[in-house]
């Protein structure tokens, strides 16, 4: 279970896998013909959570509804409850196709291994193009980083699951939603040497 609600308190599991569904509420992220990134990221985050929990893993979600959660709030939550790993899930914007994963510009380990493991598994599940593991921040190739990678105190990566404006990427996302969730879960667990039970997918 993600967390247990009790009067006046919320209890989070220590050392859980933190899944961050990008955007939320008025911060829709990329939009294409009525399709909103915030909805796709929540769909995949919930599916990854389901897969991980069937594998016996504890999961912490930065949001599990259409909520406006600030960037700092997301990493603060993961840091406060000492998450074992932070995986931020997004869909890309602009022209392009395929999947890419971003890691902090210093290319730390096991962050880079985490990203490579997830991307390898996603490619097996079926993506239009493998755009590779990238470092830093796409709009500034110096020492800039996505805040979720910069502020998290545990291994982290930001996964861009195809381009919202690309019909084929959207179709792949819809058709392979569960396969993508299994791939992401398998990549996370592989990074930390946790056996993945194929009978529980």
Structural overview:
The chain is of the alpha/beta class. It has a single domain (14-194), classed as Zn-dependent exopeptidases (Aminopeptidase), CATH 3.40.630. It is built from 6 helices and 10 strands, in the order E-E-E-E-E-H-E-H-E-E-H-E-H-E-H-H. Strand 1 (4-6) and strand 2 form a beta hairpin. It is globular. Residues 1-10 have low confidence and may be disordered. One of its GO terms (cellular component) is outer membrane-bounded periplasmic space. Residues 75-189 form the MurNAc-LAA domain. Keywords: Hydrolase.
State the helicity in percent bands: 25-40%
Kindly provide the name of the CATH class.
Answer: Alpha Beta
By CATH's scheme, which homologous superfamily applies?
Zn-dependent exopeptidases
- The coarse silhouette is globular
Q: What is the terminal separation in angstroms?
A: 17 Å
Q: How is the main sheet built? A: 6 strands, mixed
How many separate helices?
A: 6
Query: Pairing-aware structural class of the strands and helices?
Result: alpha/beta
Can you tell me the residue ranges where pLDDT is under 50 for at least 5 consecutive residues? 1-10
The tally of structural domains comes to 1
SSE order, one letter for each helix or strand: EEEEEHEHEEHEHEHH
Our Rg estimate from Cα atoms comes to 16 Å
In the sheet with the most strands, the strands line up as 6-3-7-10-8-9
Number of E-state strands? 10
Here the CATH topology equals Aminopeptidase
Domain MurNAc-LAA: 75-189
Protein name: N-acetylmuramoyl-L-alanine amidase
Keywords: Hydrolase
Pfam family, one: Amidase_3
């Amino acid at each position: 279970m993600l967390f247990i609600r009790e009067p006046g308190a919320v209890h989070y599991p220590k050392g859980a896998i933190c899944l961050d569904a990008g955007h939320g509420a008025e911060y829709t992220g990329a939009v294409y013909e009525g399709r909103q990134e915030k909805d796709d990221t929540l769909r995949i985050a919930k599916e990854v959570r389901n897969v991980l929990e069937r594998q016996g893993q504890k999961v912490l979600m930065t949001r599990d509804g259409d909520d406006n959660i600030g960037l700092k709030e997301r990493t603060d939550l993961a840091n406060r409850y000492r998450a074992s790993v932070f995986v931020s899930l997004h869909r890309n914007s602009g022209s392009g196709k395929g999947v890419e994963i971003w890691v902090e510009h210093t290319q730390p380990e096991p962050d880079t291994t985490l990203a490579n493991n997830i991307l390898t598994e996603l490619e097996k599940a079926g993506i239009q193009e493998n755009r590779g593991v990238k470092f830093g921040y796409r709009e500034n190739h110096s020492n800039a980083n996505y805040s979720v990678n910069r502020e998290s105190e545990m291994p982290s990566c930001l996964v861009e699951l195809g381009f919202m404006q690309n019909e084929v990427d959207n179709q792949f996302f819809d058709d392979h939603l569960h396969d993508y969730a299994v791939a992401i879960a398998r990549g996370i667990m592989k990074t930390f040497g946790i056996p993945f039970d194929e009978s529980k997918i």
